[in-house]
Amino acid sequence: MVRGSGDQVGRRAVLRGTAAASAGLALPAVPALAGTAPAQALSGRPSARWGVQVGDVTSTSGLVWVRSDRPARMVVETSATESFSRARRWHGPLVGPGTDFTGTTALHGLPPGTEVHYRVRLTDPEDPRRASAPVYGTFRTAPVRRRGVRFVWSGDLAGQGWGINPDRGGFRIFEEMRRRDPDFFLCSGDNIYADGPLQPSVTLPDGSVWRNLVTEEKSKVAETLAEYRGNFRYNLLDEHLRAFNAQVPTITQWDDHEVRNNWYPGQILTDDRYTEKNVDVLAARARRAFAEYYPIGTLRPDGEGRVHRVLRHGPLLDVFVLDMRTHRDANSPNRQPENRQGILGAEQLAWLKRELSRSRAVWKVIASDMPLGLVVADGTANFEAVAQGDPGAPLGRELQIAELLRFVKHRRITGTVWLTADVHYTSAQHYEPSRAAFGDFEPFWEFVTGPLHAGSFPASKLDGTFGPRQVFVKAPDRANVSPAEGFQFYGEAEIDGDSGELTVRLREEGGAVLFTQVLQPGRVGQ
């Protein structure tokens, strides 16, 4: 996919404007701005110092997000040019404490396959002349004609005690991904670590010291709505993430650490760190904060709606975003001979089958927040993901995945690829029925990446039920390796507009390509 140099210069210029507008949040000045809520008796004009985001972009629409430092009216302007001549104005919501001063404005009727420049202002509800400095961003709408697509994906941010380290420059990997100039970013979950308090400093194995920026909300496990909000707000203290958000649209899903490790509906905690033991109560608060801090078309700011959805990116790509948290059964030994609920729930599975059948895209990316054939344990007896280590016929949650894979085969659905994160290393698995205990499916690939900025862990074992063969893996040999030692990963997927070939690259921080796989279009299996 070729883009003109003029386009690159324009996007850099926009980002310079964005950085200037949010300079008050540069790392050295962060602690003064890290409180749980904006002050109510502020003089001057509103401020959008937390940056802007765009999410769930289609060929003609997108969602623009901002956070204010006080009650304000959100106003968005869009234009085809950096000069904002002939700009179109969108009057957004009045933001206030009910949504932690966040707001989202839906843009409709945008031209397909084009660069959209936008700027956001916040105006005083009592006096519209008192407005914030504008915060700028850009994004590309999805094409309606066949055109190349490139996107990046990963997950796991600020986990296992490794937060924003000013000495290291914060979340540097986002600047690296931004320079790849992707059409969008798929975040595969664990956007925050609500159950992972930060310490001001951690001594590393070589004797050096990792220094964390710590806010009040990041000093304990999150339980209240304010604490969950503070966890999402913490990540936006990083200037690289804010610059990335201003340029790259997101497709965001969640996993467990948005609430707490390995949670499932109905769980009652025995963790002494929590005064609220009912996970359903915690999940409702976390879900509301998640909905407030990300522009997601199927969620309302109060958290009602759903996380699972499909985003259509022109004739070459549909992205099917799964939710393996909200509808799952309880973690268990995972060996039930019957299991209707599984990890998706019956309703979500029916939705996924229906949408896959309707899709006419060349490639159908299944964005899964957990891997299929990697054994992820929850304690000594229970299991957290799909697999449980028994290489025989499907049991437990595997039954639901077997049903889905059988459906894909018999409906002759072409171009399915599974992308995920979760396990804190990077790998590529090829699933083949001739190697499997369950053989009624066509071959497919699963690509794993992450973490973006968190502890890294050794590779998990493979479960043979669906015949996976691990053709590539890079992982440390011990648990919770810090970002200072590397092992931070993201993936890149690129679809050629002419041939339709899909090239998947697994990259590590620093830009090196670790593994490449080229997939051919039009096949039920690969």
Find the structural class using helix and strand composition. Answer: alpha+beta
Radius of gyration: 22 Å
Principal-axes geometry comes out as globular
Q: Give a short account of the largest sheet.
A: 7 strands, mixed
Count of helical segments? 7
Number of strands: 24
**Strand proportion:** 15-25%
Average per-residue pLDDT, rounded, comes to 93
Task: Give the N-to-C terminal Cα separation.
Answer: 23 Å
Domain PhoD-like phosphatase metallophosphatase: 157-506
Keywords: Signal
InterPro entries: Metallo-depent_PP-like, PhoD-like_MPP, PhoD-like_sf, PhoD_N, Phospholipid_Metab_Enz, TAT_signal
Domain Phospholipase D N-terminal: 51-141
